[in-house]
Amino acid sequence: MSRSSKKCVVLLSGGLDSTTVLAIAKHQGFEPYAISFRYGQRHSFELERAARTAAKVGVAAHVIVDINLAQFGGSALTGSMPVPKHDSAEQIGEGIPVTYVPARNTVFLSLALAWAETLDARDIFIGVNALDYSGYPDCRPEFIEAYERMANLATKAGVDGSGAIRIHAPLIHWTKAEIIQQGLQLGVDYSDTISCYDPDEHGNACGHCDACLLRQRGFAQLGLKDPGN
Questions:
Q1: In the chain, where are the structural domains located?
Q2: E strand or H helix at 167
C-alpha cells in the first residue's frame, strides 16, 4: 500500500485552519481519523463545528478527548482573564499573547500520536500557521520539526523501522488568504467553522479578537465575505 493511501490522524478544532487541513489530507488520498479536544476552553461551539465537519466530510472516526488544561490556567482561553480585542488586525501586538495555552499543541500532538500508534498510522496532520497567527511558540516550523524527531524516538514504529512518523503542517508558511483560497478550491464550507476566541452565548463571533481579525483580513484580501465565524 502506498503511503498516500494510508490512515492519518487529523487534529480538528472546528476552526478555519484545521478544517482546511482535513480537506487537504483527504485530497492527498489519506483516510482521515479526526481528533478534537475538550480541554477546558472558554466555549464548546468549536467542538460542535468539528463534529459537523467530520460528519459532512466523512472521516473514518472522530473522537473528542477530555483533558482539563484549565486546571493549570495561564491563558485567557482556559481562565478568567479577558480575551484581548482590537479594531483591526494591524493593532495585534508583538510577542506571545495571553490567549496562548501553555504546551497545548505539545499535549494535543502527543494524544494524536498515541491514537496514530494504535491505528498503525504514520501520518499526523495539524493546522498550525507561522504567518497570519497570534505568535504562539508551538505554531512554528522549529517546533513541528522537533516534535517529529521526538515522535520517531518515542514510538514503536519509529524504533523498529516499520515506518517513520511524519507530522504534516501544510499551512505553516501560508497567509490566511492562501489558506482560504486552497480550502475553497477543495470545497470547504467555511460557514461550518468558527475561529472566535470569545463568541457570545449563541456562538456568534465577537469580531474583534485576534482570531476573528486575522480571519476577516484573509477573506477581505480575496474580496470575499466571510460566510461563517
A1: 3-221
A2: strand 166-168
Among 3.40.50.620, 2.40.420.20, 3.90.550.10, 3.40.50.150, name the CATH number for the domain at 3-221.
3.40.50.620
Grid cell digits, residue 116: 496514530
CB 222 within 8 A of CB 180: yes
Q: Look up the pTM and report it.
A: 0.94
62 three-class SS: strand
CA distances to 89, 108, 182 from 97, rounded to whole Å, are 14, 20, 28
Q: What is the layout of strands, in order, in the sheet containing 123-125?
A: 61-66, 31-38, 7-11, 123-125, 166-168
**Distance from C-alpha of 156 to C-alpha of 225, rounded to nearest angstrom:** 47
Report the distance separating Cα 5 and Cα 28, nearest Å. 8
Write out pLDDT tens, residues 170-226.
999 999 999 999 999 999 999 999 999 999 999 999 999 999 999 999 999 999 999
Q: Establish how many alpha carbons lie within 13 A of residue 123's alpha carbon, considering only the half-sphere containing its beta carbon.
A: 23
Q: Which cell numbers hold the place of 48?
A: 460542535
Query: Cα–Cα distance between 120 and 10 in angstroms, integer?
Result: 14
User: Do residues 220 and 180 touch, judged by C-beta distance below 8 A?
Assistant: no
